[in-house]
Structures are given as C-alpha cells and as structure tokens.
Write a structure and sequence with these properties.
The protein has one domain (11-471). By secondary structure, it is mainly alpha-helical. α5 (111-138) packs across α11 (260-292) and α11 (260-292) packs parallel to α16 (413-437). It is globular, with a radius of gyration of 21 Å. It has helices at 11-14, 17-26, 37-66, 71-107, 111-138, 140-146, 151-166, 168-184, 187-210, 220-244, 260-292, 296-332, 336-369, 376-390, 393-408, 413-437, 442-466.
Length: 474
C-alpha cells in the first residue's frame, strides 16, 4: 500500500526543532487544521507518545516488583489485569466516542458544543465506573476462581484483585478525560495527567510491596494500592485542568447539566467503540485461559511477554491517537484529503519505530525477559512468546494507525467488524487448535496472536484506502 503523497514540511525543515519540542510539551494553541501537517502531527504526537511511554513504564513496573515475589504473584497480576481488560474495553470505547465528537466540534470551531460533549462523556464514565468498582471489589474471589487461579492466588492474591478492581471508576475517568483532552488537541495536559498517575505508582509501588522506610510491607496487594492511588490522583489533576480556564477546552458550571441528545451521540459512537475493544480484550482473556491449562509458569511468562509488548507498542498507539485527532478535526474543518495524509504519515513513522523495536525483541528476548524473572521455566515461556509476537511489530503499527483513524472519523463500526473477524473468528479458534489439539502448548496461542494482529493490519489498511470514512457525519 502506498501512502498518499504529501508536500507538507516537517518541523526539522521549517523551524527550530527545539522550539517545536518546547511547544509540544508546553501545550500548543495553534489551529491544527491550518498548521503544516508535519508540524501539527509533531506537536500532537510528541506528548501523546510520551504519555504512552509512561503508560508503557507503568505496564512493566508492577510486574517488575511483583516478580520478586514469585510466579504465583506474577500470575495474580496477569489474571487480574486480564479481568480488568473488560473495564479498559468499556473505558476505551467511551473514549473513542468522546474523542471523535470533541475533535469534530473543535474542527468546526464550536468550543461550547465541545465542552458540553465533554461533560456528558464524564457523566457516562461515572455511570458505568461506579457499579464496576463495587462489583469488582465484591466478586474478586469468584472472578479469580473462574479464571483458573492457583490455590496461592485464591488465598493471597485476592487482596490485589479486590483493591485494583475496586478502583475501576478511576480507570474509566482517567481514560475518558484524557481522550477529551486529545480530541481538543491538548495532548500535553493528557500527558501530564498520566505521568503524574504513573509516577506516583512507580515511587509508591516498591515502598508498599517491600515495606521500604515507614511504609508497611503489603506484598502483592501493595502494588494494587499504589496503582489505585496514582490513578485517582491523576483524575483529580484532570478535573482541575479541565475547569481551570486556560486550555484549549474549558468546562464551566453552565455546561454541567444532563443533555440526553449529546449523551446519546456519545453512546452511539461509544457502543461500537466498546464492542470493538471488548472483542479484542476478550480474546486476550480466552488466550490466558488457554495458557492457564499449562500452569502458573506459562501464565507468568505470557504476562511478562505481553507487558513488554505493551511497553513497545504504546508509543506507537500515541502516534495513532495523534492521527485520530487530526482526522477528526480536519473532517470537522471540511478537509478530508488532509485527514487522509495525516493517517498515512503517522503510520509510516510508527512502522519504522516499532519495526526497529521488534528486531531488538527478537534478537534479545531471553535477556530482556530475564530482567523480570529468575525462574527458568517462566523465562523460557516469556522469551518464546515475546519473539513470536514482536516479529510482526511493523504490521501492528499500521493496523493501530488505520483503526484509530477510522475511530477518529466516527466510522467506529468498521474497526468493530474487523476485530470480530480477526480475533473471534480467526485468532481464538486457531489458538485452541494449535495449543490443545496440535499439542503446541502456549506456543500455539503466541502464534495465533501474531497472525491475528497481522491480519488486522492488512484488512484495516484495505478498508481505510476505500475512503468511505470521509463521509461519516457525527
């Protein structure tokens, strides 16, 4: 597939790279539909990539510290995070709807409508997040049992699960409000919120896990407490910035009222967005269930491998989010061709970056996984899985960019059907056949994961090239 030609200049050729970097980190107020495309992508992508880098660090922080407590503790984190993927799916789906609508309204230069949309999205986050928090805390033991947790996990790991799932409302709001900032083009504030949340977790995590200084030694549960405190603090900062009045988007008291029509618009886009994420996330849950048939060491190895994969791909997801914002705002400004060029440009940069990381992972998988475990069986499973999955990183980069660009355009059902095809209809049957019937064990699940994400990249690229997303009204 060939990218659409672009004559836009990059920041390196049109001005000081350092001044552009400072603008990106400080928060740019320039019109993203009028600035040179390379510069607009740069000022959005830098904070979004840094935001995802911190999320990547978070993804490996807990497993690094908890890994010192043994394979069962690592399996507790893996099983709980797998259950929480459903919360991530809902939060991500709501975020897709909020980001797409806010970006479109900002592109139309209607900041009042963008603010009202933001408030309705936050109401939805509370509506779904609070019941999920209560249910997660109450049913934590049952959920771990259903996930096939070992006796140690059921006895000692339940405290980790109860605390982490009990803070689900903070997950919903953290995802959702950051998507609002990104849709408005205020990627720098979203970056700071996540850096604050994860920075607290990184500092507080080892203190509570190992009992450093005046802190109590809480073991695996301490990691969940640190994570929950960090996320909740991040949400408080987001609300402060959203109402402060000096950003791209400001919420005032006059905006804080229920608007059924706007809420339904958010839900209309979010429904498909949630479903597409549910499809992807549930496939991960089933993969963990398949792998759990082969013991805690296999689950622990898979958990380490997936955390490392997330560490690598989240910065590229930041680029995909930048593309989605540009697509949404440029469609609002009636510039569909510029929206298409933005997606191709972001995809190319992402593929180069992620492809290079994939080569490193393939070459040094045992050494990298060995940082997180000393158990030889866990290391073997993790290294093998990391090599297989990371071999297709360049494909994944384009797949993320295309699917997020479709979401940014409001064409959320296209990625939904693609996820149904690639994950439910293809990945899960293949994983079961290879792992169980062909006797390949966890390797079969790893191969199925690689194949499904590669298929998604090719299929989403074909859909994006057809261009129907340019005519979607939101």
């Amino acid at each position: 597939m060939d990218a659409a030609p672009s004559s836009t200049a990059t920041p390196a050729t049109t001005g000081s790279l350092w001044s552009e970097l400072r603008e990106a980190l400080r928060g740019s107020h320039r019109d993203l539909t009028e600035a040179p495309l390379g510069r607009a992508l740069f000022v959005l992508a830098v904070p979004m990539v840094l935001e995802m880098v911190m999320e990547s660090v978070f993804a490996v922080t807990d497993i690094f510290f908890v890994g010192r407590l043994g394979a069962d503790a690592q399996a507790t984190v893996g099983l709980t995070e797998t259950m929480e993927t459903m919360v991530y799916a809902l939060s991500f789906g709501l975020s897709i709807g909020a980001m797409s609508l806010v970006a479109r309204r900002m592109g139309e230069k209607d900041e009042e409508a963008a603010a009202r949309t933001a408030v309705q999205a936050i109401f939805l986050g509370l509506l779904f997040g609070i019941p999920l928090s209560v249910a997660g805390a109450v049913f934590a033991p049952t959920l771990l049992r259903l996930m096939g947790g070992s006796p140690w996990v059921l006895e000692h790991g339940v405290h980790f699960t109860r605390v982490l799932l009990g803070a689900n409302v903070s997950v919903c709001l953290l995802f959702l409000i950051n998507a609002i900032f990104r849709g408005a083009g205020d990627a720098a504030t979203a970056m700071r919120a996540l850096w604050l949340a994860n920075g607290i977790n990184i500092v507080l995590g080892p203190c509570l896990v190992f009992g450093l200084g005046p802190f109590p030694k809480m073991g695996v549960a301490g990691a969940a407490i640190a994570t929950s405190i960090g996320r909740s603090t991040g949400v408080v900062y987001q609300l402060y910035r959203l109402t402060r009045g000096d950003g791209r988007l400001t919420v005032r008291w006059r905006h804080v009222r229920l608007e059924a029509r706007t809420m339904l618009s958010v839900l209309s886009l979010s429904g498909a967005g949630t479903l597409q994420t549910v499809v992807g996330m549930t496939s991960w849950i089933v993969l963990v269930w398949i792998i759990s048939r082969f013991g805690s060491e296999a689950v622990a190895g898979y958990t380490i491998a997936i955390r490392l994969v997330l560490f690598a791909i989240l910065p590229s997801f930041g680029l995909a989010n930048a593309a989605a914002t540009l697509v949404g705002q440029n469609l609002g400004a009636k510039k569909p061709d510029r929206a298409e060029r933005a997606a191709w440009k972001a995809g190319g940069v992402s593929a180069v970056f992620l492809g290079a990381i994939g080569l490193v992972f393939v070459a040094f998988a045992p050494q990298i996984v060995g940082i997180f475990t000393t158990d030889p069986v866990v290391l073997a499973h993790g290294a093998h899985g990391l090599r297989i999955i990371s071999a297709g990183f360049a494909f994944y980069a384009y797949g993320m960019t295309f699917t997020q660009s479709l979401n940014g355009a409001g064409a959320t059902w296209a990625p939904t059907w693609l996820n149904l095809l690639c994950f439910w209809a293809f990945e899960l049957p293949l994983a079961w056949v290879l792992s169980v019937h062909a006797g390949m064990g966890p390797t079969g699940a790893f191969i199925a994961c690689f194949a499904a994400f590669s298929l998604l990249a090719v299929a989403s690229g074909a859909v994006f090239r057809r261009g129907h997303w340019k005519t979607v009204a939101v």
